[in-house]
Amino acid sequence: MIELLSYDFLRRALAAAVLVGVAAPAVGTFIVQRRLALLGDGIGHIALTGVGLGLLTRTSPTILALIVSALGAVAIELLRVRTRTGGDVALALLFYGGLAGGVLFANLSGGSASLNSYLFGSISSVSTGDLYVVAALTVAVLVTLVVFGRELFVLCQDEEVARASGLPVRFLSLLIAVTAALTVVVAMRAVGLLLVSALMVVPVAAAQQLTRGFRATIGLAVVVGVVAAVGGLWVSVDADIAPGPTIVLLAMAVFLGAVGAGRLIRMRRTESP
Amino acid sequence: MNVPFSLTGGEVRLERRLVLRGVDLTVLPGEVVAVMGANGSGKSTLVRALLGLVPLSAGRTELYGVPPSRFRDWKRIGYVPQRLSIGGGVPATVREVVASGRIARQSRLRPASAADRTAVDRALRAVGMADRARDPAQELSGGQQQRVLIARALAGEPDAFVMDEPTAGVDSRSQATLAGTLRDLVAEGRTVVLVAHELGPLEPLVTRSVVLDEGRIVHTGRPPTPQGECARPGHDHVHPHAPAEEPGLLS
Predict the structure, then answer these.
(1) In terms of CA atoms, which chain A residue is nearest residue B95?
(2) Residue pLDDT tens, chain B, 251 long
(3) Does B195 map to a domain?
(4) What are the angstrom distances between the C-alpha of A19 and each of A22, A64, A140, A179?
């Protein structure tokens, strides 16, 4: 591992892995708390249209993915509020439209091959410019969570109580959706848009097998996220396999381990009260 | 104006159905008002309308003299929603949930203060959950979770409470705890509006009861006394009683 760090591209990949490992589970904890675990998936699909547009216009797929996914997140939130029934169909339309649009635009640009690196991730091809964008987005995400964390906790716990506490519910709902969109773009390079949501949800699912509180869950989920992202990157370089799926499968393995460990802990707790 | 809750001509439509029809309800400081009635009579909708949580199709509601959309003094209001469980897809400790009740008194960038911690401790003690503060709230029994939700409202130190079925699914010990908590609030001059299917140990504290039937107020005054089978202590209350079945209620 140490001698691998002499490679520039691996240093950049490692930095990106750490950033993704921190940002995705941190936001993911609030998303799971709000019972919107699949939100990341939806935004990921929509982001693909941004990537396609970026390839087509020969501008930055990352920046366009950022813009389109942020707009998509706002659209999802508005649909969620406006349409009580049929809302999930409207969301499905948005997702498929996003996916189809992305593939079509990429195809038109003649860059279908590079679309793959966005669909499934290519952390080892992260450029210095990409890394700056990812770092800036991660900072934006973390600052948002620190500043609005208390309010977001109330919102994600019980929206009606948030309203009866005088919180700006509409603003906070959009804020968490847009923050999720930023996170999707952060995680896009590491694990790809189709697996983005896994890094937002699986570390949280693993952590909550072992934790008793919300803060503890965020903390442990971030640890799991970093371990999975860095460990997955290392294994993939070592074994010369694709990093995206390796990272996600490693996170899944941690989840399974946490389920077992959680059972053991609870059994012991009930045996010796 | 110092009137905690005032609803005039309140009408609520949910999915085209009229759930509340022309309801007038003014709650003065220090009152303990019980909103009663059969399932589906509009009790929950009424108290949620008082807070502006459901839109009125006619009439107006005010919190301390201000419509909910322009009301800014939410720290004066404590809301205990009707929930089967505390909710949220991630574990939260009892203390975390109760501490979140301080939100209307906190500003964005300031960390929790000593006053916050003291209020949370006091709220936990008031509902007898201080020894469970570090436990995951979602793993508690229904009655204990209800006490946590009440503690969350208490932690905000509001002047007026709205409690939606605080005694539903709560064992008799938790009900007794709740009655004690409520007695202290009343002694401090707080205002309470609570929805209840039956009052149980809360009865002596209630200063006025309002009975709803099909979205209309059909009785106002002293709480109706249970009669017949209902009057037997500890009876299992399973039958829905429409007010018409109870003689004297409409008179």
Answers:
(1) A213
(2) 689 999 999 999 988 889 999 999 999 999 999 999 988 899 999 999 999 999 999 999 999 999 999 999 999 999 999 887 787 889 999 999 999 999 999 988 888 899 999 999 999 999 989 999 999 999 898 888 989 999 999 999 999 999 998 887 777 887 888 888 889 988 999 999 999 887 888 888 999 999 999 999 998 887 666 555 555 555 554 444 444 444 444 43
(3) yes
(4) 5, 20, 12, 15
* B197 touches B3 (CB < 8 A): no
DSSP A117-144: HHHH--GGG--HHHHHHHHHHHHHHHHH
SS3 category, A56: helix
Q: Would you tell me the crossing angle of helices A196-207 and A8-33 to the nearest 10 degrees?
A: 60
Domain containing B217: what range? 5-245
Q: How far from A12 is each of A66, A115, A247, CA to CA, in Å?
A: 20, 21, 16
Topology given in CATH for the domain delimited by A3-194: ABC transporter involved in vitamin B12 uptake, BtuC (1.10.3470)
Q: Say if B50 falls within a structural domain.
A: yes
Residues from chain B that touch A37, judged by Cβ atoms under 8 A, are 89
Identify the contact set of chain B against chain A, taking CB-CB distances under 8 A.
Answer: 48, 51-53, 71-75, 77, 79, 81, 83, 86-93, 95-97, 100, 103-104, 106, 108-109, 134-136, 152, 156, 162
Residue B27 lies in a domain: yes
| pTM for the structure as a whole | 0.89
Of A33, A147, A166, the CB nearest to B72: A166
